[in-house]
Design a protein that fits this description.
The protein has 308 residues and is an alpha+beta fold. The protein has helices at 55-72, 89-93, 121-125, 150-159, 161-164, 178-193, 240-253, 270-278; strands spanning 6-11, 14-22, 27-37, 42-49, 77-83, 97-107, 110-120, 134-136, 141-144, 198-204, 207-218, 224-231, 260-266, 282-293, 296-306. It comes from Clostridium cellulovorans (strain ATCC 35296 / DSM 3052 / OCM 3 / 743B).
Length: 308
């Protein structure tokens, strides 16, 4: 199998192993075929990269393998296993479903989690817009939050534990663990693939300084989503959240085809209200005892932004 950046060739002594090489013949990684069932037309592979490679090369390798399996071998479903510390963005780009996580797997004398990404033939050939969502301006970058950002999110919440406490639900100690953050991002990614939510990390100079989440996305006659957000205590008052909200609202009203965005703030959260008003949101009312925040049912102001 030959592409523009890589070639894939079978290891002759091991019929179920395939080497990924660049155009200079340097080995970049390897596919291990764990299951190849012609009756059920299902295949499972483990992919291992020897080092961090150019994403376009890795994406081409996955694409070549998928085409070989779907077209030449008539497979209907393919699942890949990949280690937690390797790049999973290519699977997001190609519209794979995150089907599960195998925890505490022994890999080269180290316990790791393995992600299972699956895709069927129809899903692959009918995939639409890339899932590699990156929104940016001169100051910040918004990246789609996938499980590879678990450590970033954990660091963010640990740094801002006291800062965020008055504005968020009560958190137990498990929340401040890598396992918890990974699970939350896995759940969020699956919601994204199902079209019911989308979450972004807000990055400044490659540091995660905030997050923006649009949940409860409803299409049909409503076309509405509910937006929540937070920002690092050290980056407040610099206009970054306003910029993030404006970048996201443009996406929401174009690619996501929403008609309305809704956001809520605590009655006394003036800073958050100023962000929304600066981004064109209008106050539409007050909802009594709306959310259970920091141990109490709290009243919230409701804001909405309508697509014009």
């Amino acid at each position: 199998m030959n592409g523009q950046y890589v070639t894939i060739e079978v290891v002759k002594s091991l019929e179920r192993e395939y080497l990924i090489k660049d155009k200079l013949g340097i080995s970049l990684g390897r596919f291990f075929v764990l299951e190849f069932n012609k009756d059920n037309r299902f295949s499972m592979l483990k992919v291992t990269l020897y080092k961090d490679e150019i994403p376009v090369a890795f994406k081409e390798a996955i694409t070549l393998m998928l085409q070989w399996l779907f077209i030449k071998n008539k497979m209907l479903k393919v699942t890949f296993l990949i280690e937690e510390d390797q790049d999973i963005q290519v699977f997001v780009d190609l519209s794979f479903d995150l089907e599960g996580v195998i925890t505490n797997s022994l890999v080269e004398e180290e316990y790791k989690s393995l992600f299972l990404f699956g895709i069927d033939k129809n899903q692959y050939f009918k995939r639409g817009i890339t899932n590699n969502l990156v929104l940016k301006n001169d100051d910040i970058v918004l990246k789609l939050l996938t499980p590879e950002y678990s450590k970033n999110m954990l660091d963010y919440y640990v740094r801002n534990k006291n800062h965020l406490k008055p504005f968020e639900p009560m958190r137990d100690e498990y929340f401040y663990t890598l396992a918890a953050q990974r699970k939350l991002l896995i759940d969020g990614y699956n919601q994204y693939m199902n079209g019911t939510a989308i979450g972004f990390g807000i990055f400044k100079d490659d540091k995660l300084i905030g997050r923006l989440q649009c949940s409860n996305i409803v299409q049909g006659v409503f076309k509405n989503g509910i937006v929540g957000y937070s920002i690092d205590v050290e980056y407040q008052g610099r206009g970054y959240m306003k910029q993030a909200m404006k970048l996201f609202s443009e996406l929401a009203f174009s690619d996501l085809e929403l008609h309305r965005l809704e956001a809520t703030t605590l009655i006394d959260n003036i800073k958050s209200q100023k962000v929304l008003l600066a981004c064109g949101f209008e106050e539409v009312g007050i909802s009594k005892k709306y959310l259970f925040i920091n141990g109490k049912w709290r009243d919230h102001k409701i804001f909405a932004l309508i697509r014009e």
